[in-house]
């Protein structure tokens, strides 16, 4: 089984979903999507000509990160229009728990990622979450019923080494980022092929 830990406001989570689904289908293994609330770091803007070395390095890293996201999003035909700064994704993550319970978690996740990053929905809007669940085939959404489960899941994921998203939990090991999919393929293929490193 592949357990993929995601947050809808995290673009890397969106970029990891398609390749992970393809790998799970190729290997015939189940895929579980697990919600994990994260924070989006925001760089402070320095005054013109007053940027410190540390601030410049942070800005350059952020610019590279943005260009990298754009490059990989274009390759997957994914829109990254939304601004995720200050977004509270809790309601959407509660919706994922509900969708998982109803057996439509993957469809729900694809719907929410697509709508949010295209700028078509808010992650904290209960009606938008109900609409995404309904379009995925889920029954009426009760967010209050899932809040304790979301907190409990966070605690158990952190006990397994989760601290960010996207993260993979496979064969008792924890991996951060989709760049580890070759190693995950190797683990789930009973280590038959040469080690992909």
| Distance linking N and C termini | 22 Å
Apparent shape? globular
Rg, nearest Å: 18 Å
Q: Which structural class do the helices and strands define? A: alpha+beta
Description:
The protein is of the alpha+beta class. It is globular and about 55 Å long. It has helices at residues 11-27, 53-75, 90-102, 105-117, 126-135, 147-159, 181-188; strands at 2-6, 31-35, 167-170, 173-176. The protein has a single domain, classed as Glutaredoxin, CATH 3.40.30.10. A four-stranded mixed beta sheet has the order 2-1-3-4, with helices on both faces. The model has no long low-confidence stretch (mean pLDDT 89).
Question: What order do the helices and strands come in, and which of them pair?
Answer:
Blueprint: E1 2-6, H1 11-27, E2 31-35, H2 53-75, H3 90-102, H4 105-117, H5 126-135, H6 147-159, E3 167-170, E4 173-176, H7 181-188
Parallel strand pairs: 1-2
Antiparallel strand pairs: 1-3, 3-4
Give a short summary of the structure.
By secondary structure, the chain is an alpha+beta fold.
Distinctive features:
197 residues, alpha+beta, Glutaredoxin, 4-stranded mixed sheet, 7 helices
């Amino acid at each position: 089984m592949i357990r993929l830990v995601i947050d809808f406001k995290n673009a890397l989570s969106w970029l990891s979903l398609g390749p992970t689904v393809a790998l799970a289908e190729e290997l015939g293994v189940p895929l579980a999507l697990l919600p994990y609330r994260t924070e989006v770091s925001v760089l402070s803007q320095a005054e013109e000509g007053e940027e410190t070395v540390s601030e410049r390095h942070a800005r350059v890293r952020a610019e590279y990160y943005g260009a990298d996201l754009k490059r990989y999003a274009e390759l997957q035909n994914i829109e990254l229009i939304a601004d995720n700064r200050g977004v509270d994704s809790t309601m959407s993550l509660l919706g994922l728990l509900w969708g998982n319970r109803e057996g439509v978690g993957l469809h729900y996740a694809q719907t929410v990622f697509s709508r949010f990053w295209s700028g078509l929905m808010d992650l904290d809007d209960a009606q938008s979450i109900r609409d995404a669940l309904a379009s995925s085939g889920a029954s009426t959404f009760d967010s209050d019923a899932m809040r304790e489960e979301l907190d409990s899941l966070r605690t158990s994921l952190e006990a397994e080494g989760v601290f960010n998203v996207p993260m993979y939990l496979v064969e008792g090991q924890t991996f951060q980022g989709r760049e580890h999919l070759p190693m995950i393929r190797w683990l789930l293929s009973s280590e038959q092929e040469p080690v992909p490193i």
